[in-house]
Specification:
single chain, alpha+beta, Heat Shock Protein 90, 5-stranded mixed beta sheet, two-stranded antiparallel ribbon, 22 helices
C-alpha cells in the first residue's frame, strides 16, 4: 500500500511539472506569434520606429526560447523570420555584430527545414556583413553558396546580385581577371531583363575595373555601352552619373574637348535635379578641367565654388579633392598665401582621415573580437547545457529513490557530492584554460594595433611620395615619425606583458633606437632615466614631445664639421607625481625666435600644458641647447 502511494505521488508530481512546462511553452509561443504579426503589419506600412520596436521585442523573446523544446515547425519558422528582421534592422543601423547574430540564427532554422530561398537570403546578407569587417574569404565562401542556391531556384535577380557581389569582392582583392569574369556573367543575365539601371551600373563597374588594369580601349567601350543605355532611361541622375564618369575618363585621357561636352551634359541634369552633392563633384571636375586647359582664372573660380559648396554640405571627400586641385593651381600661378593656407588644410584633413581610419580599424577589431567571444560563449553554453541536462536526468532519478529508501538517499547524496566535486574540478580547468585564451586575445589585439600603426605610417609615407612640394612631403614624414613614437608604446606593452604602468626608461631607449636608424650615425644619444612607471597616455605624449626634439636636433643642430655631436636626455622625479626632463645637445644652438615660430615646439608646449607643465630654454656648459620640461601625471 505504501509503495502504491509513493508511486502515485511521484507520477502526479511528474504530470504537474509536464503540464506546467507545456502551459509556459504555449504562452511563450503565442507571444512570439503575436509579436510577429505586429512586425508584419508595421513592415507593410513601412513605419520604421514601430517596426524596430517590435523587432527588438521579438528578438528578446526568441532569445529566451530553447529551440530544442519547440516541436512546431511553424513556430520555429516564425522565430527565424524575427531573427531575419533583427539582422536586417541592425544592418540598416550599421551594427555589424548584431546583424551577423540575427542572420546566423535565422539561417540555422531555415537550413534545418530546407527553406532554400530564405536561407540563401540570410547567407547573402551574412556575406555582405563579413565583407564589411574585412573577412574576405568568409564573405566569398558565403556569396558563392548563396549564388549557387539562387541558380538552383532560377532566381535571376538573385543570380545577378550574387555574380555582381562576387565580382566586386574579387576586385577588392585586386584579382581583376576573376572580378571581370563574374561581372560579365551578371551583365549577360541583366541584358535579358528590363532592369536597364542594373546593366548601366555593371558597365560602369567593368569600366572602372578595366581602367585599373590599364586597358583603356575596353574602358572606353564599357563607358560607351553605359552611355547608350543611359540615353534610354528617364532617370536623370543615372544619366548624369554616366556622363560624369565618361567625362572624367576623357579628362584623365587628355581628350579635354570630349570631356567638356559630357561635363556640360551632366551639368544640365544636375541643375534640374538641384543635387548639391553631385554639383560639388561636377564643379571640382570643372576646376581640374580648366587647370589642364591652362585657363587658370576659370579653374580658380570653379575650385573656390566647389570648396565653398563642399564645406556647406559637409562633403569631406569632395573638400579634400578640391583642396588638392587648388594647391596645383595656386602653385602654378605662384599665389604663395593661398598655397600655404590650403597646405595647412590638407594636412588637417590627413590627420582627420588618420583618426577616422584608426576608429574604423578599432571598430572592425571590436567586431572581430565580439565574434570570437561569441563563439567561445556558444561553446561554453553547449558544455553548460549538456552538463545541466545530465544533472537534471540524475536528479529526476534521485527523487524516486528518495521517496522509497532512506539508505538510497544517503548513498545518492554521496554520489552527488562526488559528481559535483568532479564537475568543479572540470570547471576550474575550463576557467583556467579560458583565462589563458583571453590573455592571448589581449596580446593579439595589441599586436594588431601595432600593425595598424604600421599600415597608417606606410599609407602616409606612400602618399607623400606623390607630392612634388618638398614642404608638404616633410610634413608627412614628420607625421609618420609622430605615429611611430605612439606605436613604440604598444611594442613595449607587447614585450613586457604589462598593460597598465610602463617603464619610461625602456620606452625612451626604444624611441631613441628607432630614431637613430633614420638619423646621422655620428650622433651619440645618451639617456639617464629613472625607472618611472607611467600610464600609456602619458608615455605617448612624452614620446611625441621627445620625438620632436630629437628630430629637430638631427635636422638642424649639427654640421658636417662637428667631430663629436651628442644628445643627452635625463628623466627624474622632482616631487610627488612631478617629473623633470632635461634635453641637451652640443649643436649650433637654438634661436628663441625660431623656437616661437616652430610648429614642433608649439606642439610640445601644447602637450606639456595638458600635464600642468612648463617648457623653458636655458644654457649649460658644453651644451649649446638645453631645454627643461617639468610636468605632472594625474
Amino acid at each position: 500500500m505504501l509503495k502504491f502511494s509513493g508511486k502515485t505521488v511521484y507520477f502526479l508530481f511528474l504530470m504537474f511539472a509536464f503540464t506546467s512546462h507545456s502551459i509556459a511553452a504555449n504562452l511563450s509561443n503565442y507571444k512570439v506569434q503575436h509579436i510577429y504579426s505586429k512586425i508584419q503589419f508595421f513592415d507593410s506600412l513601412n513605419i520604421q520606429d514601430s517596426l524596430f520596436h517590435y523587432v527588438k521585442l521579438g528578438y528578446s523573446e526568441c532569445s529566451k526560447i530553447d529551440l530544442n523544446s519547440v516541436d512546431s515547425k511553424d513556430i520555429q519558422l516564425v522565430i527565424a523570420e524575427i531573427y531575419y528582421h533583427y539582422g536586417d534592422m541592425n544592418y540598416i543601423s550599421n551594427d555589424v555584430f548584431e546583424s551577423i547574430n540575427g542572420f546566423e540564427n535565422a539561417a540555422k532554422i531555415f537550413k534545418k527545414y530546407d527553406v532554400k530561398d530564405k536561407y540563401s537570403d540570410c547567407i547573402f546578407e551574412l556575406a555582405t556583413n563579413f565583407s564589411k569587417v574585412g573577412e574576405a574569404p568568409k564573405s566569398l565562401q558565403l556569396m558563392h553558396e548563396a549564388t549557387s542556391i539562387f541558380i538552383d531556384l532560377k532566381d535571376t535577380a538573385g543570380i545577378i546580385a550574387g555574380y555582381r557581389s562576387i565580382g566586386l569582392l574579387y576586385n577588392r582583392q585586386r584579382d581583376y581577371v576573376r572580378g571581370r569574369e563574374y561581372l560579365i556573367k551578371a551583365l549577360k543575365l541583366s541584358k535579358n531583363t528590363d532592369d536597364i539601371e542594373s546593366s548601366i551600373h555593371l558597365y560602369v563597374a567593368l569600366a572602372v575595373m578595366y581602367k585599373k588594369a590599364d586597358d583603356l580601349e575596353k574602358t572606353a567601350e564599357m563607358y560607351k555601352e553605359a552611355l547608350r543605355l543611359a540615353e534610354l532611361t528617364n532617370v536623370g541622375l543615372v544619366r548624369a552619373n554616366v556622363y560624369s564618369n565618361l567625362a572624367e575618363f576623357y579628362k584623365n585621357s587628355g581628350k579635354l574637348d570630349q570631356a567638356k561636352l559630357y561635363f556640360d551634359k551632366a551639368n544640365e541634369i544636375i541643375e534640374e535635379s538641384d543635387s548639391d552633392y553631385k554639383r560639388s563633384f561636377l564643379w571640382l571636375n570643372y576646376s581640374d578641367y580648366y587647370y589642364l586647359k591652362e585657363e587658370y582664372q576659370q579653374a580658380v573660380i570653379y575650385g573656390e565654388k566647389a570648396l565653398h559648396l563642399c564645406e556647406e554640405i559637409k562633403n569631406r571627400r569632395g573638400e579634400f579633392i578640391t583642396l588638392n586641385i587648388l594647391l596645383k593651381i595656386y602653385e602654378k600661378i605662384g599665389n604663395t598665401d593661398k598655397l600655404a593656407l590650403y597646405q595647412k588644410r590638407v594636412i588637417a584633413h590627413l590627420f582627420e582621415h588618420k583618426d577616422e581610419l584608426n576608429a574604423q580599424i578599432n571598430e572592425l577589431e571590436t567586431v572581430r573580437f565580439k565574434l570570437d567571444k561569441q563563439n567561445l560563449i556558444i561553446e561554453n553554453e553547449k558544455i553548460k547545457s549538456q552538463f545541466e541536462k545530465e544533472q537534471k536526468e540524475k536528479e529526476q532519478n534521485y527523487i524516486y529513490i528518495i521517496l522509497f529508501c532512506v539508505f538510497a538517499i544517503l548513498k545518492t547524496i554521496a554520489l552527488v557530492l562526488y559528481i559535483r566535486l568532479r564537475a568543479i574540478r572540470k570547471l576550474n580547468k575550463y576557467i583556467t584554460k579560458q583565462s589563458e585564451e583571453r590573455k592571448l586575445l589581449l596580446k593579439e589585439v595589441h599586436h594588431r594595433v601595432k600593425n595598424n600603426f604600421q599600415i597608417v605610417s606606410s599609407m602616409l609615407r606612400l602618399q607623400s611620395y606623390g607630392f612634388e612640394n618638398e614642404i608638404l612631403r616633410q610634413n608627412f614624414e614628420e607625421a609618420v615619425s609622430r605615429i611611430n613614437a605612439m606605436a613604440i608604446v604598444h611594442n613595449v606593452i607587447y614585450r613586457q606583458e604589462k598593460f597598465k604602468d610602463i617603464d619610461a626608461k625602456s620606452y625612451l631607449e626604444q624611441l631613441v633606437d628607432n630614431l637613430n636608424k633614420t638619423g646621422d650615425s655620428r650622433i651619440v644619444v645618451s639617456i639617464q632615466s629613472e625607472e618611472v612607471p607611467f600610464k600609456i597616455e602619458t608615455l605617448i605624449n612624452l614620446g611625441i614631445a621627445l620625438n620632436e626634439l630629437i628630430t629637430n636636433s638631427f635636422k638642424h643642430a649639427f654640421t658636417d664639421q662637428m667631430d663629436q655631436p651628442k644628445i643627452n636626455i635625463s628623466l627624474r622625479t622632482i616631487a610627488d607625481k612631478t617629473y623633470e626632463i632635461v634635453y641637451k645637445d652640443n649643436g649650433v644652438g637654438i634661436d628663441k625666435q625660431d623656437y616661437q615660430a616652430n610648429f614642433g615646439m608649439d606642439l610640445i608646449d601644447t602637450i606639456i600644458s595638458n600635464f600642468d607643465g612648463d617648457v623653458s630654454i636655458t644654457t649649460m656648459e658644453n651644451w649649446n641647447t638645453v631645454i627643461k620640461i617639468t610636468f605632472k601625471e594625474f
